[in-house]
Task: structure prediction
Amino acid sequence: MSDISERFRDAVGSGATLVPAPGAEDSVLAFARSVAAGLSDAPKWLHCRFLYDAEGSRLFEAITEQPEYYPTRTEAAILARHAGKIREVTGPVTLVELGSGYSVKTEHLLNAYSRHADTLRYVPVDVSDSALRAASRSIAENFDDVQFTGIAGTYGSALPVLRQLSPQMVIFLGSTIGNFNEGESTAFWRSVAGHLPLGDFFLLGVDLEKDPAILEAAYNDAAGVTARFTRNYFARMNRELGSEIDLDEIEHLAFWSPARRRMEIYARFRSAQTIEIAPLDQSFEIAAGERILLEISRKYRLPQLTRELAKFGFEVKRSFTDEKRWFALLLLERIDASVIRSAPQPPASR
Ligand code: SAH
Ligand code: AVI
Result:
């Protein structure tokens, strides 16, 4: 099997718009194994990356349109206002986006970057094929000068491509970094730092700490779309793993954990159920009232985050926020960690 760098080169050469990352072909087995690992543990958990099949990606887009879910519209407004300034700092670069989804907000950046270039290269990376295809259609309709090569796979499987894309800006929006726990976050930054050449850029969107009532409302929208997103995890298990779960017996539970400074999103089972994982010929018992952790969403304080990023060789060049200081966009440069300056960081522009 060819590695991702070869696959990517071949895809660009042949004009293909989607490249499957190695391993993407075994997605049902990967799903089955991940579910079995999480349900064997105590307390039980499920990995949030599998929230995003075609239906999950569609539901996430619907979440972003709910009045209570402020992060998307707040970040979009920051991007609309500052995309030109970001382009001024980075100059002409390839845009690589991790967890790009439908790439809706990215269009602000594509606008700013394509204005200055005959051809702009855009490389979105996402586990959701359907989201990449939707993004590809929308970008083809709105831009005639963007060369789109999507990578269908995990962040980790795509990072080795970064060496061949320099000069570049890697984009990670939506505060999706907040869905990683501390260990995953450390491993992620270490791996990005290992693959991103010095002098390249990273644009990071992060949701900031705020009144827990605002946070809890964002993850418990009145229309119940986030609850459907949670339930879709189990619907996907029924579709792909033959799990036979009674979805009506699952409740969505989302609350702020002050101790861990994160939202925690669970599925709670009203009654006992047996979950089958047909591809592995395994089954798991869930007790009445038991809850399964599906997702965390960490919220940030900028001074701590800036210090943390510096440890991995990322220096804040510019930071942007909104009037309420609810969300921030950090433009980072990958620099040699041994020369990180101890000077204070520039204040965030509004
Ligand atoms: N960036 C968009 C979408 C965020 S939703 C926005 O800000 O609105 C998170 C996206 O990351 C989804 O499209 C999901 O399919 C993708 N994703 C989740 N885990 C992933 C992983 N491990 N590797 C690659 N993509 C992942
Ligand atoms: C993709 N991610 C940043 C979203 C979040 O806010 O943590 C996922 C989400 N889950 C429920 N609502 C939104």
Notes: The mean pLDDT is 95.
